[in-house]
Fold this sequence. Notes:
Elements: E1 7-14, H1 23-39, E2 45-52, E3 57-63, H2 67-76, H3 82-85, E4 86-95, H4 96-102, E5 122-130, H5 137-156, E6 160-165, E7 170-177, H6 180-190, H7 192-197, E8 201-210
Antiparallel strand pairs: 1-3, 1-4, 2-3, 2-8, 4-6, 5-7, 5-8, 6-7
Amino acid sequence: xxxxxxxxxxxxxxxxxxxxxxxxxxxxxxxxxxxxxxxxxxxxxxxxxxxxxxxxxxxxxxxxxxxxxxxxxxxxxxxxxxxxxxxxxxxxxxxxxxxxxxxxxxxxxxxxxxxxxxxxxxxxxxxxxxxxxxxxxxxxxxxxxxxxxxxxxxxxxxxxxxxxxxxxxxxxxxxxxxxxxxxxxxxxxxxxxxxxxxxxxxxxxxxxxxxx
Length: 212
């Protein structure tokens, strides 16, 4: 089984207030608080941090050995006026390569890294939800195995970071693609889940920018 440090997907949504801090202060304060909190826990780290383009949202992937310790640190280091102005959603993650190997049976030794391919490109956040009405789980996994093999190839080239949400048929992706056309063509024409069961594979896509 995978021995990777537990990872979490955090999605922050901000609401500015005339009486409170501005949007920029909320976003920066949250990012700083998150970095400070993770630095105080065992093996804690912010792996990825992005802002959704033109929207009051931050997306972060963090790691920590102990969930209770991480929660305590996040509570002790809140963003400015955290309360009603900053809402957060947390999802437990499993590295996609571990799911591909241990559940789908893909033979791989690939290990996800924080590095991206060097050529320029636009970043995107993509959410994929998979249904399988009218087929067995075995049939779904046969198609998903083909999908995983294709996805791991993109990951090995440094253009994608993938996770499966624990206990859900949901995959979360951070992608770096040279153009929107390449991204659209990849999903619409190149991936087995979309080609063979596109009516049961639902996606949402957001352009994102690295937050520093």
